[in-house]
Write a structure and sequence with these properties.
Structural class of chain B: alpha+beta
Number of domains of chain B: 4
Order of helices and strands of chain A: HHEHEEHEHHEEHHHHEHEEEEEEEEHEE
Largest sheet of chain A: 9 strands, mixed
Number of helices of chain A: 12
Helix content of chain A: 25-40%
Strand content of chain B: 5-15%
Oligomer: heterodimer
Number of domains of chain A: 1
Distance between the termini of chain A: 74 Å
Shape of chain A: globular
CATH architecture of chain A: 3-Layer(aba) Sandwich
Largest interface: A-B, 108 and 119 residues
Helix content of chain B: 25-40%
Radius of gyration of chain A: 25 Å
Shape of chain B: globular
Number of helices of chain B: 32
Largest sheet of chain B: 7 strands, antiparallel
Number of strands of chain B: 20
Distance between the termini of chain B: 25 Å
Strand content of chain A: 15-25%
């Protein structure tokens, strides 16, 4: 066959494919159908109450189960577990006990990561003041945050049952201490899809430094379809893995290649009639758009100098500040769930980089301004009212001073305390200016209104419009949910 | 062909778990009644909650059973005497079941079914999957004038009854590609396609059979099927959780590949992995196989509790075993009876007892390990040396132990005990000896300093000392063990009144158990490896120390002992002595024991020789299963509501009552009996579960679609008789040969059908459960990469060995421990192009390409991969460095290897990637692109075209 014939044939085929294209747009079975078929038979009988994703697009936006105020989430996790006793949970009585031996009643039946025998009590290391109209206590380590504190509500009595970082971080994000369960972001994007399918629906941003020890498991999709796992976006290299074309391939040439691919795949569809082929064509087109949309969203250089000054951002750097600004840019564009991980908050006192009287103070400086500016920025843009901003660690820290190896350490630090820790929430339908739950006089355990993690999760889901029991997925014989098998209570007091 | 069907036929096909709309005279309990009970009743009257003591999971809690109300729940044949029927039909809202507040009443159809069932005698039957498969009658079926095998008869008779017909045969090239990817995970080359097409033209059946046999004889076969297995047994090259350190366990991965390649019968495959260590005189392979159970996660994060994660590992072993071999969600039973299936809470812990006594205990070094030589021909040598060491060790120990048990021991009193740091000891006087114990905070690196005055020894010279270490609280530690102790050195002196001193040296020691994998004569001291309970102590532990010469003290002198405990558990917990006492013996036999010239002395020399010979053999290691000796065995107790901190009654090993009992020569079955039970031949699950997995790999959907759940909440088999046929064929006719059963399946016409679909068919049977067409599946993650390497001509044929580090996108590799390096071989180095199964599997950083294409990260047993289709996948196959390198290589092949005519090159590469000839139009499209790319960058034009070929829908599916 000579080239001319080939080209003629091609022209004829391309005319034909015009009409075929119209047919294809009407054909709606494919990937979505595949997922739903896999869940379908079971889901139907179990009364799952999430909508059905568009059959060619597992990310199309879906309405929640009921009207939730919050449409999207920015979750700021301080990996390592910041000390609530140096930031938000003011305990003057603890000051009086500073240096005294810890009462045995505190130690009985408790497991510690590093404390041995009988440690000494440790008073708050920084002065506290009340701020704003709400009169919230904030230590002098967070001066910027103190100015915007009326926008947030605190939970002072969060509780977990894990006292090691890996399992505890998993508890916060997946409700289970083991690897292999869907993270909150996966549940939410599975339930709600996303508002801009040219961007990943669930984005993860790391401040640099050490990655969280269980790594990707913190944003994994567990037994949910893998498309709902978080996508890490980066300030270095490709903002999303493989989003850039290879060096020698221009966007033009890629477009031509994709046109050819589309044409060939359409012929394949004609021959084999597999609806999955049509989904694949759509995915390649979406990928092509993503190649533009992601770098655009991630390019903070587009922001004016004034914004950089406010956030303290430096384009090209990996930092918490950059990630706060990116989070705003992403939610502005319709990303459903933005997960930030900062690092270095494990204030044992074993090393200077994390000790309360050393590195902890640098960490406070690094996050104080950007997280405060983020709240203001979202508010000014009208985004705060339907964006939930959440700040937490994975557990609290002990009112006792750590005595690793049974000795007094040179630097000052506190051990892990799963019994009580503080989180704050802003925006998306919460009642601002609240403080929920009170710890005992030394901040060791809840005295009033303990909040186990399942209640916290149920509350966050509620704000997004989900009844936590009805956001479930069958796996290993159980209707699995973020809140686990225990009963969970939505903290109505926090909801506007 | 006309494709139109009455709607009820469609619903009976697609809603396979649905109930018939109209009650019929012959009600089948399993088919008609159990689904109603599970959907409406078992939430309150089931395994978790049994309100009124009634449970619809168990026959004896329903039939002729008097509930708390005093009425019989169901009286067979008597509606009036069946409280259940009254409750589901009453108008009284307070009495009605299910309760009116948040449930609908049963539908008239459901009530009719229950009525008919009770009236017909209320016959109860177990869930299908818990009843042994029965040899089904093979139905008649026709397809043209073809002679049909049994697999086709089952499938096609069903199609016939649905008014469907099978599809014609697949084009030969595509068929070979399906066989090749299906059986080996790799596509056929052009020569293979040519040869097959020629053979197929003369005799299709013979050509397919020959191809299947040949493909199954390739080493690639084992690599493909091992991947499926490694998902189940959660194989990874790292420990997971806290540190996610590297774990050297790849010898197990290679064992699995070899087992599939050698067609190790599945019963042996099972027994070796679950209990190879307990086989009589296990071979090295038998030991390596037990690493299957050592793929559990470790947690080496500082400050973690080894016992917690040891138990997590045991729990994972239980769940993985049941999921892998039984597809039963046994994990449910950890906290309560199973909600739907007849499995009881206590049975979980009885099963736990099979696993609870293995020696591993969440230690960072993954002990116990076994040496695996690089050269397989040295396996026997290694096992012989190992056996020799163990037997010599046992002999030495026994000779010491015999003396120890027959001599008289006297307790030492008047001890004064202090430490080198802030740790404090108190001494309490017991009748027979002084016992010392810590008070308050115990510091790390504690040395216990014990002083004993001469009077304590009386007149006699002491020929041996015995040190006994106890848990701080022996009453609780037996079930909730405390942090243990580890003695890394022990020194002693005879001290004079003026404080001058001379050292006492020890010649030998006799520990309480012989299994310490170290030198039994010099366990402690500068040349020893330490002795103790690392990292947990359940029981009292003791060791006898034999001095060079008898220790004789005169008045004013004292014996001073310094016991060094420098180690910590998980970087935090002091492994110090918290309680203990000392005894001495004056028996003469000690002075003669193990001195030069004695048997024990020679044994020790031989043991040392064997030990160094073993270390001299080059090789790797693998963690294995190993039982703790009786003396330090861990008892198993129930956990209250699944909580390990609350221990309930002690239980003995055993199997769930719903299954036929285990055959055991012993009073209490052990792990080996349990392993044999799975493959005893009358187990209802094992063979069905495994053939269902093979089927799913080939057809994309299992005969039981829920691979993960054969219990009553899973889906029912679409072709129950076919499943039983295959199961019986596999275990009885083929003696568990995986290759034989695979061969029968791939030779079926069903597998060889064309996968052409139509909109009608796709609506009628979207998942292709009925197989009126051939399978069309997306390549697995590993296949996507391996195929690209193969088509690009880059794929390395190197097999096995340590995991490799192919190119990974920049910035991904940021392990928590920076010492864990990812060093990518340079282009041209074959380790860059190895099959995907050899890529380093790190749990916290899954290899991005694999994760994007739905490979699990192997934390837990992963029974099924769901296949997705996403834009991120497109970005991988278009832009990832590996795929770009493959496209460049294919581009170069296009340019150089093939004919100088571009269209012919295009046709060749299209065929390489898809197994079939491209149409002129397709070639035309590619040619147009080629010209456009040539105009832009002639050096890169072929790569652009190659990329399109590697990204075709046909390339990515098979």
């Amino acid at each position: 066959m000579n080239i001319e014939t080939l080209l003629n044939e091609t022209r004829r085929r391309s005319l034909e494919s015009e009409t075929r294209r119209q047919f294809l747009t009407r054909c709606t079975t494919g990937l979505g159908a595949l997922f739903l078929a896999n869940q379908g038979a079971r889901a139907a009988s179990e009364g799952h109450a999430i909508g059905k994703h568009d059959e060619a697009n597992p990310f199309n936006a879906l309405p929640p189960q009921f009207r939730g105020k919050a449409k999207r989430v920015i979750y700021l996790h301080m990996i390592g577990a910041p000390s609530q006793l140096e930031l938000f949970d003011y305990k003057p009585d603890l000051q009086k006990l500073d240096g005294e031996l810890c009462p045995q009643s505190f130690l009985e039946g408790k497991d510690f990561a590093f404390i041995q025998g009988t440690p000494k009590m440790l008073g708050p290391q920084f002065p506290f003041k009340q701020h704003g109209q709400s009169g919230a206590w904030v230590s002098d380590r967070f001066p910027h945050f103190a100015k915007v504190v009326d926008n947030v509500s605190f939970i002072k009595t969060l509780q977990t049952d894990q006292f090691n970082h890996g399992p505890a971080q998993l508890m916060v994000h997946s409700g289970q201490p083991r690897i292999g369960y869907p993270s909150m972001g996966s549940w939410v994007t599975w339930g709600l899809g996303t508002e801009n399918t040219d961007l990943p629906g669930f984005v993860v941003l790391l401040s640099g430094g050490r990655i969280p020890r269980v790594g990707k498991a913190l944003w994994g999709s567990g037994f949910l379809p893998s498309v709902y796992q978080g996508v890490q976006c980066r300030s270095h290299g490709d903002p999303v893995l493989n989003v850039s074309n290879p060096e020698n391939i221009s966007r033009d040439l890629r477009r031509s290649a994709l046109d050819t691919l589309k044409d060939l795949n359409q012929q394949t569809y004609e021959s084999f009639g597999d609806p999955e082929t049509i989904t694949r064509i759509a995915q390649y087109e979406m990928a092509f758009r993503m190649q533009m949309a992601v770098p655009d969203a991630m390019d903070i250089e587009q922001e004016p100098a004034s914004v950089h000054e406010l956030y303290g951002t430096e384009p090209g750097k990996e930092s918490f500040a950059n990630n706060c600004l990116l989070a705003r840019r992403l939610v502005e564009r319709g990303t459903r769930f933005v997960q930030l991980f900062d690092w270095g908050w494990d204030s044992h006192g074993a090393g200077a980089n994390e000790a309360l009287n050393a590195g902890f103070q640098d960490k406070c400086r690094e996050v104080d301004k950007p997280m405060s500016v983020l709240l203001v920025d979202l508010k000014q843009r009208g985004l705060l009212e339907d964006t939930l901003v959440v700040w937490s660690g994975e557990f609290g820290r002990t009112p006792m001073r750590e005595n690793r190896g049974g000795r007094e350490m040179k630097l000052v630090g506190r051990d892990h305390n799963p019994g009580a820790f503080t989180a704050w929430i802003a925006g998306g339908g919460i009642k601002p200016g609240m403080s929920y739950g009170e710890t005992d006089e030394v901040g060791y355990s809840p005295a009033v209104n303990p909040v186990p993690l399942e209640d916290y999760h149920a509350t966050l889901l509620h704000l997004l419009g989900f009844e936590h029991k009805r956001l479930n997925y069958p796996f290993q014989g159980l209707d699995q949910r973020l809140t686990g098998v225990k009963d969970a209570r939505v903290i109505k007091e926090l909801i506007a | 062909m006309k494709l139109s069907f009455p709607t009820y036929a469609i619903s009976s096909v697609l809603v396979l778990s649905g109930t018939a709309a109209i009650a019929s005279a012959d009600v089948d309990f399993a088919r008609d009644i159990r689904p109603i009970l599970n959907a409406n009743c078992t939430e309150c009257h089931g395994g978790v909650k049994a309100a009124g003591d009634i449970s619809f999971v168990y026959e004896d809690r329903v039939i002729n059973f008097e509930g708390d109300s005093g009425n019989l729940v169901v009286t067979p044949g008597d509606l009036k005497e069946s409280e259940m029927f009254h409750r589901i039909t009453t108008d009284d809202e307070d009495d009605r079941m299910p309760p009116a507040d948040d449930n609908d009443a049963l539908s008239p159809e459901e009530i009719a079914l229950i009525r008919d069932w009770i009236e017909g005698g209320a016959e109860w039957s177990g869930h299908w999957a818990f009843e042994a498969p029965a040899s089904p009658t093979i139905p008649d079926a026709n397809y043209g004038d073809q002679e049909l095998g049994n697999v086709d008869r089952f499938l096609f008779s069903r199609l016939e009854s649905e008014g469907l017909t099978p599809s014609p045969s697949e084009e030969p090239g595509r068929l070979l590609r399906r066989l090749s990817l299906g059986l080996t995970g790799l596509p056929p080359g052009l020569e293979e396609l040519d040869a097959f097409e020629a053979a197929y033209a003369s005799n299709p059946d013979r050509a397919v059979a020959a191809a299947a046999d040949e493909l199954m004889s390739r080493p690639a076969f084992g690599e493909r099927w091992a991947t499926m297995w490694l998902d189940l047994v959660r194989y990874a090259d790292s420990g997971g959780l806290g540190q996610d350190q590297r774990r050297t366990i790849w010898a197990y991965r290679d064992w699995v590949v070899k087992a599939f390649n050698e067609d190790l019968p599945f019963d042996q495959f099972t027994i070796k992995q679950l209990a190879g260590d307990l086989l009589p005189r296990p071979s090295l392979d038998d030991l390596v196989a037990t690493a299957c159970q050592r793929n559990t996660q470790n947690n080496d994060e500082g400050g973690t509790d080894d016992e917690v994660f040891r138990i997590e590992a045991v729990v994972d072993r239980i769940n993985t075993t049941w999921q892998t071999w039984g597809s039963v969600t046994f994990g449910c039973v950890q906290c309560h009876d199973h909600p739907y299936d007849p499995l009881r809470n206590e049975e979980y812990y009885r099963f736990m007892a099979f696993y609870n006594n293995s020696a591993d205990s969440d230690l960072p070094d993954d002990a116990p390990l076994v040496k695996v030589p690089d050269k397989p021909e040295r396996y026997d040598e290694v096992i012989a040396l190992r056996e020799r060491m163990l037997s010599l060790q046992e002999s030495i120990w026994r000779s010491g132990k015999t003396i120890q048990d027959s001599v008289e021991w006297s307790g030492l009193k008047s001890l004064s005990v202090t430490s080198n740091n802030s740790t404090q000891y108190d001494v309490s006087k017991k009748a027979a000896y002084d016992e010392f114990h810590t008070v308050g905070t115990v510091e790390t690196k504690t040395h216990t300093l014990i002083d004993i005055p001469a009077e304590s020894f009386g007149e006699e010279s002491s020929t041996a000392l015995r040190l006994t270490i106890l848990p701080f609280d022996p009453s609780t530690s037996i079930h909730s063990p405390e942090w243990g102790f580890l003695i890394d050195d022990l020194e002693a002196w005879i001290v004079e009144e003026d404080a001058s001193k001379r050292p006492v040296s020890f010649r030998a020691s006799v520990p309480d158990v012989p299994w310490m994998p170290t030198d039994p004569m010099r366990i402690i001291g500068p040349n020893g490896k330490g002795w103790g309970a690392d990292s947990r102590i359940h029981h009292a532990r003791s060791i006898t120390l034999v001095p060079e010469q008898g220790i004789e003290l005169v008045e004013g002198q004292r014996l001073s002992i310094r016991i060094h405990c420098n180690k910590t558990g998980q970087g935090a917990h002091p492994l110090a002595i918290e309680r203990g006492y000392l005894e001495f013996s004056s028996d003469e036999r000690w002075t003669q024991w193990a001195i030069s010239g004695t048997e024990a002395f020679n044994w020790e020399r031989e043991r040392a020789e064997a030990s160094s010979a073993l270390s001299a053999i080059p090789g790797t290691t693998v963690p294995i299963m190993h039982e703790r000796p009786e003396l330090v065995a861990r008892p198993t107790r129930m956990f209250e509501r699944g909580n390990m901190l609350e221990k309930g009654d002690e239980v003995l090993a055993g199997l769930p009552a719903s299954f036929k009992d285990v055959h055991s020569a012993q009073q209490i079955p052990d792990r080996l009996d349990m392993a044999r039970w799975w493959v005893s031949g009358d187990h209802p699950l094992t063979a069905r579960v495994f053939v269902n997995r093979l089927w799913e790999q080939l057809f994309g959907i299992g005969i039981v679609p829920t691979l993960e759940d054969f219990g009553s909440s899973g889906e029912k088999p679409t072709h129950p008789e076919l499943l039983d046929y295959l199961a019986i064929r596999f275990q009885d006719d083929y003696d568990w040969s995986v290759k034989a059963i695979l061969r029968e399946v791939v030779l079926s016409h069903a597998y060889r059908q064309s996968s052409r679909n139509s909109p009608e068919m796709s609506e009628r049977d979207p998942d292709n459960r009925l197989l009126a067409r051939g399978p069309r599946l997306r390549l697995t993650a590993e296949m996507v990469r391996d195929q690209a390497l193969a088509v690009g001509g880059l794929l390395s044929a190197k097999r096995g060995g340590p995991p490799v580090h192919p190119p990974i996108p920049e910035g991904v590799w940021r392990p928590f421990l920076s010492k864990d390096k990812w060093e990518t071989p340079e282009p041209g180095d074959e380790d860059r192009y190895r099959r995907s199964i050899y890529t380093y599997v790190k749990r916290s950083i899954p290899f991005p390409t694999f994760a994007t294409f739905d490979a699990p990260s192997r934390e837990f047993c992963n029974p099924r991969r769901l296949s997705s289709n996403t834009p991120l996948q497109a970005l991988v196959t278009l832009n990832d460095a590996v795929f770009v390198e493959c496209a460049e290589a294919l581009g170069q092949r296009l340019n150089a290897e093939f004919s100088s005519l571009p269209e012919e090159s295009l046709a060749q590469s299209y065929r390489m990637a898809t197994g079939r000839a491209a149409s002129p139009a397709q070639i035309g499209s590619l040619y147009q692109l080629y010209e456009k790319a040539m105009a832009q960058d002639p050096n890169y034009a072929w790569t652009v075209v190659a990329q399109v070929i590697l990204n075709l829908d046909e390339t990515l599916t098979f």
